[in-house]
Specification:
The chain has a single domain, classed as Rossmann fold (3-Layer(aba) Sandwich). Helices cover about 50% and strands about 15% of the residues. The protein has helices at about 15-25, 35-50, 65-80, 100-130, 145, 155-175, 195-200, 200-210, 220-230, and strands spanning about 5-10, 30-35, 55-60, 85, 135-140, 180-185, 240-245. Strands 3-2-1-4-5-6-7 form a seven-stranded parallel β-sheet, with helices on both faces. It is globular, with a radius of gyration of 18 Å. It is an enzyme of class 1 (oxidoreductase).
């Protein structure tokens, strides 16, 4: 049986790396990509320690369409057709909107929304050329894509765009490729680095923790388990959906 291959952007750390480890443990060929070669090699040392599947890394910037196309070509050269993609690469920072520079806005939009489009589009072209059906795309979003949130205007706008792209392609590419396109909305997740960028004060971290009905932050491994389940044949009828894995955090916005 031919192994399936998955491409995970932003796969060198946090949730991306956890997903890469999970898929490789399950016997998939895994390709991780990112901008930082040193981080990619550190992640590869962990992936290579798993005695299942195969793994490779590709250094590129999701903002560069041609770079995304070349990254996919390198993966295809190594493993053949690519069956799944996780658009995990992201960028964010907290800033009041009036203090936001045009460059700050453009940077986040370019990574999150345009980067997701770039990788998704080159994969769609690949599926078309290979006449491959039944592929899977998982996009990483956030609850402020539909709820909004202060200080994260570019990320909220970009994630809203990604969520709508997810649903649009679930219909369009469902018909065209028999493909499934879904999204995950993680809540506060430990050991990802993202929380440290958004929240620096210990009291604020504890306030967020209290606002999670289950009383804790999630783990990258829990996100990885969900991503694997969503990509598996068990979920071959799941399409155009967004699953929140956040302990109920998005439902509870009132501080105690």
């Amino acid at each position: 049986m031919n192994m399936k291959t998955i491409w995970i952007t932003g796969g060198s750390s946090g949730m991306g790396k956890a997903m890469a480890l999970k898929f490789k443990q399950e016997g998939w060929n895994v390709a991780i990509s990112g901008r930082n070669e040193e981080r990619l090699q550190e992640a590869m040392s962990e992936l290579n320690a798993i005695n299942a599947g195969q793994a490779m890394s590709v250094q590129h910037d999701v903002r560069d369409y041609e770079g995304c196309a070349q990254a996919l070509a390198d993966i295809v050269s190594a493993y053949g057709p690519v069956h799944a993609l996780v658009n995990n690469a992201a960028g964010n920072f907290v800033c009041p909107t009036l203090d936001l520079s045009p460059n700050g806005w453009a940077s986040v939009i370019d990574i999150v929304l345009n980067g997701t489009f770039n990788c998704t589009h080159v994969l769609g072209k690949h599926w078309e050329a290979e006449e491959l059906r039944g592929g899977c795309i998982i996009n990483m979003v956030a609850s402020y894509a539909w709820q909004a949130g202060p200080g994260v205007a570019p990320s909220a706008a970009a994630k809203a765009g990604v969520l709508n792209l997810t649903r649009t392609l679930a219909v369009e590419w469902g018909y065209q490729f028999g493909a499934r396109v879904n999204a995950i909305s993680p809540g506060p997740i430990e050991r990802t680095g993202g929380a440290e960028k958004l929240v620096s004060h210990v009291k604020e971290v504890e306030r967020i923790r209290r606002n999670v009905p289950l009383g804790r932050f999630g783990t990258p491994e829990e996100i990885a388990d969900l991503a694997y389940w969503m990509a598996s044949d068990e979920m071959r009828y799941l399409n155009g959906d967004c699953i929140s894995l956040d302990g109920g955090h998005w439902l509870n916005k009132h501080p105690f």
